[in-house]
Amino acid sequence: MSRFRHFLAIDWSGAAGERHAGIALALADAQGGAPVLVDRGRRWSRPEVLAFLAEGLPADTLVGLDLGISLPFADCGAFFPGLAESPADARALWALVDRVSARDPHLGAGSFVDHPAFAPYFRRHGGREGARFRCDGAAHGKGRFRVTESAQAAMGCKPYSNFNLVGAAQVGKASLTGMRLLHRLGPALPVWPIDPLPPTGSVVVEIYTSLAALEAGRSAARAKMRSHAALGEALGALGSPAPRGTGAIDDHASDALLAAAWLRKVAGDPERWRPRALTPALARTEGWTFGAL
């Protein structure tokens, strides 16, 4: 039995601009019922999501953010190996990203990835692969992985490096903009496992919506659901009623709805909070994806 009373899943976006079709929020109640979209009548902006988490979050909510809450550290012993000002832990990384990107509107992070000190670590558009993108000769072209991303891959997912900013499936931009959000939330809303899991109150965790889809009986290649029928089938596999609707559905909305129901189903499982490879050092630096075992 989970101690949480509400489960909020956020499909996030790192795209440029103010409002984004790629942002969707869905809420599931611990008492049951279908998950529902948190609808503001227009597309969400990132600052509006920040305000909702800071001021409008229901009590005792487990918040799942679909982004990477940190960058790889364990593979090279630093976020930015060879850089004197490389942060020592995840919260220091968030502060750095927010400070360097302070003039970027809408919690953007373009200034950070274009900064001459940090650009060499990223793969950017136009074939611009930084000299440090692979951390001194990584064995594959996907770039550096956190330990949790290796765990995701072992479970059948297809993760991408958070240093990769190219391609439809990349999550690097979303992760960096999300770090600005997490920094501005401050310590009032703990972020597991960077912060210990408190006995009461709301908590943020990183999620990967493909993990929810896998547990709902879908493959990584079929993780996206673009019809109410497909969403209803996946929710049923998790023991959740489906929201009303027929025909097509936006896959960002379906990702959030399924992930909210999945959080409700699995949050009470103690093993989800004790992944085998998670160490105290990883918790402080790289963090972890909730549900990656």
Automatic annotation (TrEMBL):
Protein name (record): DUF429 domain-containing protein
Q: Which organism is it from?
A: Pelagerythrobacter marinus
